[in-house]
């Protein structure tokens, strides 16, 4: 991919989703970290339903540790993998109190050492809560990046992130992350992408293949 094509893609998606943002409800870095941790293999919509009550009940790491883990499990049981996530939250809160004065660290290297916080979660937190440029690669970002040619079909999540960081100006990393998510969530969906009305069809490998397949199928139906 050349620079002009990359710029065309970024500008087009920016025009489509100028107000893209983090859709996980939160008021601070601590709540954001908990919300992103809960969002693994779960929709943001469901996480927001659960955290609406959760964040009223628990305001600090101390609050989470003040109840038995079984109670926390029940509070988040609508979330997938809720038992593991409850365990991660308890362990994370203990570390925050013991090592960071009860506050979420702002350094990426420190964040990824917290229970339940992987590279993607850390990137979301530093970007959204601390305004540090970062690109978090979730399923939407990975899918869109590969379809549009930012990355190869067989690239790992880390390889996708590195290639995006090379092709996207650093001051646009965080905004591009949100816009790619919106593009993948609301337009270039996994099962039913809107290829027929996509302004990026001319540069999309997946879209061209899908449209060609659709034309062949319609032609066969017409001839039948």
TrEMBL record:
Coiled coil: none
Pfam families according to UniProt: EndIII_4Fe-2S, HHH, HhH-GPD
Statement: the UniProt record of this protein carries the keyword Metal-binding: yes
Cofactors that this protein relies on: [4Fe-4S] cluster
Single Gene Ontology MF annotation: DNA binding
Sequence positions that bind [4Fe-4S] cluster: 188, 195, 198, 204
Keyword tRNA processing on entry: no
EC number(s) recorded for this UniProt protein: 4.2.99.18
Cofactor: binding comment: Binds 1 [4Fe-4S] cluster.
Domain (HhH-GPD) ranges: 38-186
Keywords, sorted A to Z: 4Fe-4S, DNA damage, DNA repair, DNA-binding, Endonuclease, Glycosidase, Hydrolase, Iron, Iron-sulfur, Lyase, Metal-binding, Nuclease
Reaction it catalyzes: 2'-deoxyribonucleotide-(2'-deoxyribose 5'-phosphate)-2'-deoxyribonucleotide-DNA = a 3'-end 2'-deoxyribonucleotide-(2,3-dehydro-2,3-deoxyribose 5'-phosphate)-DNA + a 5'-end 5'-phospho-2'-deoxyribonucleoside-DNA + H(+)
InterPro entries in alphabetical order: DNA_glycosylase, Endonuclease-III-like_CS2, Endonuclease3_FeS-loop_motif, HhH-GPD_domain, HhH_base_excis_C, HhH_motif, Nth
BP GO terms, sorted: base-excision repair, AP site formation
Function: DNA repair enzyme that has both DNA N-glycosylase activity and AP-lyase activity. The DNA N-glycosylase activity releases various damaged pyrimidines from DNA by cleaving the N-glycosidic bond, leaving an AP (apurinic/apyrimidinic) site. The AP-lyase activity cleaves the phosphodiester bond 3' to the AP site by a beta-elimination, leaving a 3'-terminal unsaturated sugar and a product with a terminal 5'-phosphate.
HAMAP family assigned to the protein according to its UniProt record, in alphabetical order: Nth
Protein family per UniProt: Belongs to the Nth/MutY family.
Annotated protein name in UniProt: Endonuclease III
Protein species of origin: Paenibacillus kribbensis
Encoding gene (name): nth
């Amino acid at each position: 991919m050349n620079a002009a094509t990359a710029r065309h893609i970024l500008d087009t998606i920016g025009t489509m989703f100028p107000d893209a943002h983090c859709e996980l409800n939160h008021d601070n870095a601590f709540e954001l970290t908990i919300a992103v941790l809960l969002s693994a293999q779960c929709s943001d919509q469901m996480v927001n339903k659960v955290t609406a009550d959760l964040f009223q009940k628990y305001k600090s790491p101390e609050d989470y540790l003040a109840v038995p883990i079984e109670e926390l499990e029940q509070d988040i049981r609508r979330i997938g993998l809720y038992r593991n996530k409850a365990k991660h939250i308890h362990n994370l809160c203990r570390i925050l109190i013991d090592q960071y004065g009860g506050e979420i660290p702002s350094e990426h290297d420190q964040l990824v050492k917290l229970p339940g916080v992987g590279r993607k979660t850390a990137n979301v937190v530093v970007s959204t809560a601390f305004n540090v440029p970062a690109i978090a690669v979730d399923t939407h970002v990975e899918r869109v990046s590969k379809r549009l040619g930012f990355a190869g079909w067989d690239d790992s999540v880390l390889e996708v992130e590195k290639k995006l960081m090379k092709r996207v100006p650093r001051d646009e990393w965080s905004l591009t992350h949100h816009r790619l998510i919106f593009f993948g969530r609301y337009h270039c969906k996994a099962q039913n992408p809107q290829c027929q009305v996509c302004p990026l069809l001319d540069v999309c490998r997946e879209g061209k293949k899908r449209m060609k397949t659709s034309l062949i199928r319609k032609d066969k139906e017409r001839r039948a």
